[in-house]
Amino acid sequence: MADGEVGGNAAAVLKGYVERVDRLMEERKGINDDIKDIIAEAKANGFNGPAVRRAVRMYRMEKEKRDEMIAIDDTYLAALGLI
C-alpha cells in the first residue's frame, strides 16, 4: 500500500469509526445547544448565566473535591484582601 492508502476491510472499519464519531459530534452539538437554551432561560428569569454554569460545575463535583476548591478559593481571595 502507498502512503495514505487504506484498502479492503481496514477502509471499511475506518469509515465506521469516522461515521460513529461524526454522529456523536452531532449529538453533542444538539446537547450543547440545549444547555445554552437552559442557561438563557435561567438568565431570562433573573439568574446570572456564568454563576449558573459555575454552580453546575460544582454540583457535579464530589463533595471532597468541591470543599477543597472552595477552601483554596477562600485562601486566595483572603490573601488578596477580597474577603
Report the β-strand fraction as a percent range: under 5%
| Shape descriptor | elongated
Rounded radius of gyration (Å) = 22 Å
Number of domains: 1
Can you describe this structure?
This protein is mainly alpha-helical. The protein has one domain (8-79). It has helices spanning 8-44, 49-60, 63-79.
Give the SSE layout.
Blueprint: H1 8-44, H2 49-60, H3 63-79
Name a few traits of the molecule.
83 residues; mainly alpha; 3 helices; 80% helix; elongated
Quick rundown:
The chain has helices at residues 8-44, 49-60, 63-79. By secondary structure, the chain is mainly α.
